[in-house]
Amino acid sequence: MKFGVIGAGQMGSGIAQVAAQSGFDVVLSDMSSESLGRGRAGMEASLSKLAEKGKLSASPAEVLGHVTFTSDLAEFADCDLVVEAIVENEGVKAQLFRELATIVGPQGIFASNTSSIPITALATASGRPDRFIGMHFMNPVPLMTLVEVIRGYQTSDETARFVTETAEKMGKTPLACNDYPGFVSNRILMPMINEAIQCVMEGVADKEAIDGIMRLGMNHPMGPLTLADFIGLDTCLAIMEVLHRGLGDDKYRPSPLLRKMVQAGLLGRKSGEGFYRY
Ligand code: NAI
């Protein structure tokens, strides 16, 4: 089984790592060589931590040996599955799938790790809607067990079965849902994060208190503002915009503070500052 991953950011490098840990031959690409280098460094750090804890069955070097790092999409021609994990932008993703359709043989199933963009729209752009599906991993991929498997309008049973089995081979728990805005995970999670940001804006409480109330009171492992920083505020805004556009209701309106922080370049952990400094 040859497993392709496009986008070597926090999600793509994690997906590639877990696929390699599961013994698949992996090709990982990104449009920037710096991102590819950062992705590789992140995988090395994660693999050595897992090895220290005795959670790897092969050495980090052996696992990395399964991964080809490339910027050449031609390497994906004979992939059985290509998972896309690039920037959360519908136009950019659709363009990538149109290009991939001309490169990857008809055997190849396409999956998107999108947090919120309609799977059916990307499936149409790919020209192979029956062999297209959402494969939504959680962050950090090596530690989180859920994969939300999202069927587009024309996804075939065979594609759904293949992707479900592949997720299981990666040690994950796949759970199925249909293609509506935000799917299940972000339809429920993101309005909570947005409301927490609105509480900061309105001065309901300070950020530490908001996070503490949700951690201690609701038993959440981390507060919503810490989680927003971890996900990336640009990604949070993109998801809220999809929910607002797709579902229409005012309750999905992105908080003006979220919008302002993204405009200021405060994207959370990945930019060094969001609600907290890193
Ligand atoms: P990121 O910003 O860390 O990485 C995105 C990578 O894609 C960058 O390395 C960038 O250079 C690359 N890229 C952008 N356009 C490209 C193109 N046209 N061709 C090739 N590479 C390209 O973003 P992250 O957080 O890894 O998110 C990626 C996807 O995963 C998004 O769709 C996001 O919504 C989704 N996701 C994110 C989660 C999170 O917690 N951050 C959780 C689950 C899904």
Automatic annotation (TrEMBL):
The keyword Oxidoreductase appears for this protein: yes
Domain 3-hydroxyacyl-CoA dehydrogenase C-terminal: 182-278
Enzyme nomenclature, EC number: 1.1.1.35
Record keywords, A-Z: Oxidoreductase
GO molecular function: (3S)-3-hydroxyacyl-CoA dehydrogenase (NAD+) activity
Keyword Oxidoreductase: yes
Gene3D superfamilies (alphabetical): N-(1-d-carboxylethyl)-l-norvaline Dehydrogenase, domain 2, NAD(P)-binding Rossmann-like Domain
Enzyme class, UniProt record, top EC level: oxidoreductase
Domain 3-hydroxyacyl-CoA dehydrogenase NAD binding: 3-179
NCBIfam families: PRK05808.1
Family: Belongs to the 3-hydroxyacyl-CoA dehydrogenase family.
Name of the protein described by the UniProt record: 3-hydroxyacyl-CoA dehydrogenase family protein
Originating organism: Deinococcus lacus
Highest classification ranks of the organism: Bacteria, Thermotogati, Deinococcota, Deinococci, Deinococcales
